[in-house]
Amino acid sequence: MPRPPVQRLIEVMSVPFNFATAIEAGLNDAAQALGLDTAPFAPEVHTADPRHGDFQANGVLPYAKRTKQNPRALAEKVIAALPSTITTNFDVTIAGPGFLNFTLQIPALERWLTTYDTEELLRTGATSAQPEAGKTFVVDYSSPNTAKQMHVGHLRSIVIGEAICRLLDFSGAKVIRDNHIGDWGTGFGKLIWAYKRQLNSNALATDPLEEFERLYKVGNSAADADESVLENAREELVKLQAGDEENLSIWRRINEVSLAAFQKLYDQFGVTFDHTLGESFYNDKVPQVYQELTDIGLAAESQGALVVFHPDHPRFNEQPFIIRKSDGAANYASTDLATLLYRTEQFKADASIYVIDSRQGDHCQQLFLTAAKWFEKTNRRLPRLEHTSFGTVLGENGKPLKTRSGENIKLRDLLAEATERAATLVGQKSTNLSPQEQASVAAVVGVGSVQYADLCQNRSSDYVFSWDKMISLEGNTAAYQLYAVARIHSIFRTLETSPTEPTAFAAADGLETTTEIALARKLAKFPEGLRGAVSQLRPHALGLYLYELAGEFSAFYNNDKVAVPEANIRARRLRLCARTLLILETGLHLMGLRTLQRM
RNA sequence: GCACCCGUAGCUCAAUUGGAUAGAGCGUUUGACUACGAAUCAAAAGGCUAGGAGUUCGAUUCUCUUCGGGUGCACCA
């Protein structure tokens, strides 16, 4: 039976969610009790190599050095002053020149395992331990251009952006997902020009986006070849921006079709935006930006354009930030500034996160620098601004991934191929499943493999896209972890019980085997995996943790049979299975993946 | 030319942001299914962290420098 809420709350409060932050607090208490100068004393707690315990604190060493004390003697004193919250949970030893090693006592591990037994409680724990809780984060990701299909170049922003949103949300932040689409570009004049002359209505009916793309190319090459076409296209754009009804309705139609096509892809990734405020939305909000930046002397005319220079910057003192083109039109610098103001004032953003590829680093730096000066002069509070940049998806030749003919690979085709390849594999490995089940498993494995391949390594570097590595399903892949999840579900099916049925664990006694204990120690480090991912907005830190957890589980599974006759042993192993399942599923969902009961 | 990112095992990547003997997977070699799912597990071999200098108790991480790769740099986002 579920315990009453009040009792649960007391239990949760008495067992720290994140042991590392608990140690940190304990060390700070000890330092204060000893009269250490707490300002320069930093506990420096990290998860440790298992050979050295569960956590290590290195802070005594630099402090002893600075105050000219014997580090080991100081370490002795610090240990003696540790509060009971630490000493009742850990064995503490001194190692080497003055490292403090903390090893979780088995009862403490067991308390953690019995306490954090639902996703809601993990979330509550994360909210209590994470500094992001209560803050408003606007996350700007995906942000494709309308009238074009998304391709591989759009993959990373979607996948990384969504994972970051989920991680922040789980940490108690208020997350606003904003799809800042490019729907006001200068290409629209050419597209409208071609639309009016060469529209194929059959093609428009069957695959409108494909048709818009074709028309855009037609308009583009016609404008290149003929000056008068270019002139015409400009006029179409001016008419559009002036509110011409015919052009506006074509433009609306393009956006409608584009957004519907985008949503089909977002559905496969489990992405839903709170706002889709494209550049057109800010059309009437850029004059204020021009005005204010000019008034405070930040922007000035140069070669006919309105630009911002930063004399205090080694490069941007000469490299301009163009906020209005010489023909008077806005560009993405103008709208990005207007957007930032809108997010600050309307959304009350504490942070604005830009999930954009690393090639736009200069733009973001200029945007942030400009915004900082602008907001300071106008007495506005500047949100935390972060360019969450990422590298390029490369083919096996080390160059940006393309089709054989050199075209961009459409995201639609990429996901279709991933699903198809997964289906082939499922057809071989999962013959016990019905055809419908096989198809849905293939979709989860296929799309999940693409997502995970993108998330499992450091976002800032380029990565090589390899079907074989991704779909071969070995090593640090989605399928390896999905397999662990499916196996755990299978155990509960076989034993005819459920991971959420507390009576299944009622007879559990103390952890015994080395593989049981190793798995339990890994489980209790979920908060650290989460913290690593959130604090740096790097999902791969969580991915790596989950992979290691799945590995510990597999070792446990091979060593310690769960379905044994002894009720006490079976119950404690079942509990380990249930917690592993909870954390694997929670973690994978945080990365944007779906999970399976069988595969 | 200026700036940013990167260089770690044969290959693809980690290393908790300055911590202890630099870790995984693939590939190679060897072992484990009359086992709750072998899409698994256990073990071995594989390294002057591109080269050099510096900072300090301690450097893959910070500074300088050389080499090699990628990407930006006046009106497309």
Domain tally: 4
CATH superfamily of the largest domain: Isoleucyl-tRNA Synthetase, Domain 1
**CATH topological fold name of the largest domain:** Isoleucyl-tRNA Synthetase, Domain 1
**CATH architecture classification of the largest domain:** Orthogonal Bundle
**Multimeric organization:** single chain
Mean pLDDT: 92
The number of helices is 24
Strands, count: 13
Shape: globular
The fraction of residues in strands falls at 5-15%
Radius of gyration: 28 Å
Biggest β-sheet description: 4 strands, antiparallel
Helical coverage, percent range = 40-55%
Q: State the CATH class of the largest domain.
A: Mainly Alpha
Order of strands in the sheet with most strands: 1-2-4-3
- N-to-C terminal Cα separation, in Å? 31 Å
Low-confidence stretches: none
Structural class, from secondary structure content? alpha/beta
How would you sum up this structure, described in words?
- The protein is an alpha/beta fold and 599 residues long.
- It has four domains: 5-104, Arginyl tRNA synthetase N-terminal domain (Gyrase A, domain 2), CATH 3.30.1360.70; 136-183 and 275-387, Rossmann fold (3-Layer(aba) Sandwich), CATH 3.40.50; 187-269, no CATH class; 411-590, Orthogonal Bundle (Isoleucyl-tRNA Synthetase, Domain 1).
- Helix content is 55%, strand content 9%.
- The mean pLDDT is 92.
- It binds one RNA strand of 77 nucleotides through α3, α15, α16, α17 and β13.
Give a concise summary:
The protein has 599 residues and is an alpha/beta fold.
